[in-house]
């Protein structure tokens, strides 16, 4: 295994009111690396008191930050982007060590994307505009987009830096202050980013607490002074966040899970399509992506030959140590998730008539048995109403479901509680557009399988969430409230 040259500290602290502090109860959470199951650092086990300190600090910082000129706020965000540039490699290595994502295929790109996010929201901070309404000759009516106040943000571990920075940059650009509860499984790179951001921001504008969801997370979503909840994570916890918000009529943004369909038409039995479905499945992120196209609907007439193409291309991807430049695919984030994924694979393969076209149960000896590694797995012969086709596995497991009739495949694609993303593969643009318009998902891609793009109002239908944060419009909708001022100019 490659040595960890990342500059990891033994101990990381929370950021509260511009100070780096341990948890008030002096308790800690060990952070284990999924690449070799070694403990790599410890972080504070933040709880109610830490959240209260952070929310109070954010509340004190709010008036000053709100009244800072938007373009001046934007300039600070851009300075943070510039300051992050020299740290890409170091922070990318930390992500790979803490959450198992491969350095070459994932983590470097994630940090570069985060820099772009600071630049994007920094550059549009001055675009938060209101309107005037032509009521009559003497009344001037105009609207303002005002920030909400203290935002409580909660993020998961799968793309920890990208998802945290999305919330930090957009909420702050709009003039809010923020308390971020980072994911306990992968908090280190986020704290490294906060360290750099904190050098530019006034104290209390950005606060970061690490802790468990049931402790720090609950304290944040129920704190009376938080004015907005912005959550990315599972649908089950998203539902709890929404319930807590309803007690105080708080606005919420929820970016939740997915069980996304990929539909392969008979005219698309080609190698580039097979490669595209592998990208869409996010196999190089171990399938740990909300947009993973994990239900592969393949037309019956091309089933065997298309699955062959998928497995041939998958065999070219190497599973290995996330820090190794040769690895395309890294490790599953933790034991809980590893056991869960293995449970789903067992469940799928125990059914009669299913086969693993590739992958299957994880290795029990050799270097890959030292961490939480699972080979990419393609299960053929699945039916759409089975558990493995309905529940979000959040692992490298793709279910292949045959189809014959176009109406039927659209019905199956929509037969899920989720509605985040979808992928359609065909040369027939008419068919592609018919399918794209019929599918219940916030983002449909045709003949491409890439990840989210900045500036696009990305988000979910159905239980995949509400709200959009990835764009200027999303930032305005998610992090400001509209106020009208009406003036009788005759008096
Ligand atoms: P999770 O819901 O278990 O945890 C997410 C965060 O919520 C963590 O920080 C956790 O500590 C916190 N949390 C847990 N219980 C809480 C509670 N009761 N109150 C407040 N906070 C609580 O999700 P996860 O396993 O970390 O992440 C994977 C999930 O995230 C998947 O479902 C995935 O699809 C989803 N996700 C969605 C998007 C999107 O943009 N739609 C992006 C990434 C991940």
Summary of the model, kept short:
The chain has 491 residues and is an alpha/beta fold. It has 15 helices and 20 strands. The protein has 2 domains: 14-256 and 460-485, Aldehyde Dehydrogenase, Chain A, domain 1; 261-446, Aldehyde Dehydrogenase, Chain A, domain 2 (3-Layer(aba) Sandwich).
What does this 3D model show about the protein?
With 491 residues, this protein is of the alpha/beta class. The protein folds into two domains: 14-256 and 460-485, Aldehyde Dehydrogenase, Chain A, domain 1; 261-446, 3-Layer(aba) Sandwich (Aldehyde Dehydrogenase, Chain A, domain 2), CATH 3.40.309.10. It is built from 15 helices and 20 strands. The protein has helices at residues 48-66, 70-84, 88-99, 103-124, 160-173, 188-198, 213-221, 235-247, 271-280, 303-314, 335-350, 387-390, 406-414, 429-438, 472-479, and strands at residues 14-16, 19-21, 28-32, 39-44, 132-133, 139-147, 150-154, 177-182, 206-210, 228-232, 252-255, 261-264, 295-299, 355-358, 377-380, 397-403, 421-425, 443-446, 465-466, 480-488. The chain has a seven-stranded mixed β-sheet with strand order 14-15-16-13-12-17-18, with helices on both faces. The chain has a six-stranded mixed β-sheet with strand order 9-8-7-10-11-19, sandwiched between helices. Helix 6 links the parallel strand 8 (177-182) and strand 9 (206-210). Helix 3 crosses helix 4 (103-124) and helix 4 packs parallel to helix 5 (160-173). The longest helix is centred in the N-terminal third of the chain and has 22 residues, at 103-124. The N and C termini lie far apart (78 Å). 53% of the residues are buried. The model has no long low-confidence stretch (mean pLDDT 96). The structure holds nicotinamide-adenine-dinucleotide. Nicotinamide-adenine-dinucleotide (NAD) binds next to helix 7 and helix 8.
